[in-house]
Write a structure and sequence with these properties.
Elements lengths: L1 E5 L2 E6 L8 E5 L2 H17 L21 H16 L2 H19 L9 H11 L18 H20 L26 H10 L3 H13 L3 H5 L6 E2 L2 H5 L4 E4 L2 E6 H9 L5 E4 L10 E6 L8 E4 L2 H21 L20 H15 L8 H13 L4 H8 L4 H6 L6 H14 L13 H14 L2 H13 L1
Antiparallel strand pairs: 1-2, 2-3, 4-5, 5-9, 6-8, 7-8
Helix pairs in contact: 2-3, 3-10, 7-11, 7-13
Length: 463
């Protein structure tokens, strides 16, 4: 099976069982030919391929009675493997498995209307959400989850139109459930300082330093390796102490890992060995960040440098103590035996500390918000410099999403408004004329005639 160009068109050439000569289908564009080639390969792999009916001049396709489940399998294979990264691939497979196939998977693609999608989204709101493995029940399906389902289906049905499985995209113009955005709870400067002061777990404390001091995501912190850390004396002396962010720790489904490796599109740098490999359907990995802008260098405050030096010295002791039992993955944040920490473990540490010391309840990602807001304030609004630390592709993300105002800052602004603005209200700030000055002088002399004698005496003494 292959795709070749003939004149102004592209041809897909393939063989069918029992036929001595290969078949040919022609398309106007290379993309259409490549898609048809992938469709045939997938159908043959699944054993569901049915050759199109032959007619005297060329080949025509049979009527496309394909179900949503069958179509999404094809969509993932033909489109998803080319466009999605490991984490996004894993997330979309989960949406398909848990929320799409059980409800509309057996419907024919061409039979679904915009009204059907509206009813489907409304129905989902009353259905239970599927909890991740190891987590408790999380209630009903949220409007946010439905928004992610909609994004996936909108993209998929757009391809269904191109592939002529349906005439129109049924997700266009539908009404999504209202999403009530709740502003993320964030620590103020004083609250963040208190958290560091009361933190008793050394691993969590290092994570706090890196999140607040460097604006790092939790996955970036847990994926940070010593080979990307510069805290030697020369770097510190030159003001060049920094960390290089080019990996993050994540947990990906084995299905997504195998699929993307098959087409050489995996972004995974390292797969950690499973503790219980027979039961695991996912694997902890180090992979490239989700966007190119996330690859960056972040310069370190001296306090973070000192914290990292303590961690490095402690790890050296563990290596000597454990010897061959130490699994050296070069991780900054690691268990005593060198294995990686996962996000859920750090989250539990944070929740435990918050509960024990009655701190404001926040999630770990809130620390990145706190850090960004503080840096905007300290840099007097230098958005581009802060953006360099956060790794956002667009500057508006720094100001629109991560810049938080705190009561203490707002009180300071109110005070500065009094001293710098309202203090001038009611005063005459106009510049006096010469005539105004002369009149004021005459008035002063008439009211205090003794000044005249004193001035004349001084003049006579000078002359």
């Amino acid at each position: 099976m292959s795709v070749r160009k003939r004149g102004n068109c592209y041809q897909v050439i393939y063989r069918c069982p029992g036929e001595s000569t290969p078949r040919t289908e022609s398309f106007k564009s290379e993309d259409e030919a490549m898609i048809r080639d992938m469709q045939i390969k997938l159908a043959k792999k699944k054993g569901t391929f049915e050759p199109p009916i032959r007619i005297s001049k060329g080949v025509i396709k049979q009527e496309n009675n394909v179900t949503v489940k069958e179509f999404l399998e094809e969509f993932v294979e033909v489109y998803g493997l080319k466009k999605w990264g490991n984490s996004y691939y894993t997330a979309n497979l989960s949406l398909i498995k848990n929320y799409i196939n059980p409800y509309i998977g057996n419907r024919y693609v061409k039979s679904i209307s915009a009204r059907d999608i509206d009813d489907y989204y409304t129905m989902l709101l009353d259905k239970p959400a599927v909890a991740a493995q190891g987590h408790q029940n999380v209630g009903k399906i949220s409007a946010g989850t439905i928004g992610r389902i909609h994004k996936l289906l909108k993209s998929a049905f757009s391809k269904a139109v191109v592939w002529e499985y349906t005439k129109a995209n049924p997700t266009m113009g539908v009404t999504l459930p209202k999403y009530n955005y709740k502003e993320r709870a964030v620590w103020s400067d004083d609250e963040a300082v208190e958290a560091i002061n009361v933190c008793e777990d050394p691993v969590l404390k290092t994570c706090l330093y890196l999140a607040l001091g460097c604006s790092l995501r939790l996955g970036e912190i847990l994926g940070l390796q010593w080979s990307n850390v510069r805290i030697d004396d020369t770097s510190i002396l030159n003001g060049e102490a920094h960390v290089k962010i080019d990996k993050e720790l994540s947990r990906c489904s084995n299905t997504s890992i195998e699929a993307l490796e098959r087409v050489n599109r995996s972004s995974i740098v390292l797969k950690f060995p499973q503790i219980m490999p027979k039961k695991a359907t996912t694997t902890p990995v180090l992979k490239a960040p989700k966007t190119e802008s996330s690859n960056r260098i972040v310069y370190l405050p001296q306090a973070v440098v000192e914290e990292l030096r303590k961690v490095k010295a402690q790890q050296k002791e563990y290596k000597v103590l454990l010897g061959t039992e130490y699994h050296d993955y070069d991780l900054v944040i690691a268990h005593i035996n060198g294995r990686p920490y996962e996000m859920r473990i750090i989250d539990k540490m944070l929740y435990k500390m918050i509960d024990k010391h009655s701190l404001k309840p926040v999630v770990f990602h809130s620390l990145r918000h706190s850090s960004t807001s503080l840096k905007l304030k300290l840099s007097r609004g230098n958005i581009k410099a802060v953006q360099g630390d956060t790794g956002h592709a667009e500057a508006r993300m720094v100001t629109d999403t991560y810049a938080h105002g705190f009561d203490a800052d707002r009180k300071l602004i109110a005070h500065e408004m009094d001293s710098g603005f309202f203090s001038k209200v009611g005063t005459d700030n106009s510049k006096p004329t010469e005539e105004d000055t002369l009149n004021q002088l005459k008035k002063l002399l008439s009211e205090q005639p003794e000044l005249v004698a004193e001035l004349l005496a001084k003049v006579n003494k000078i002359t």
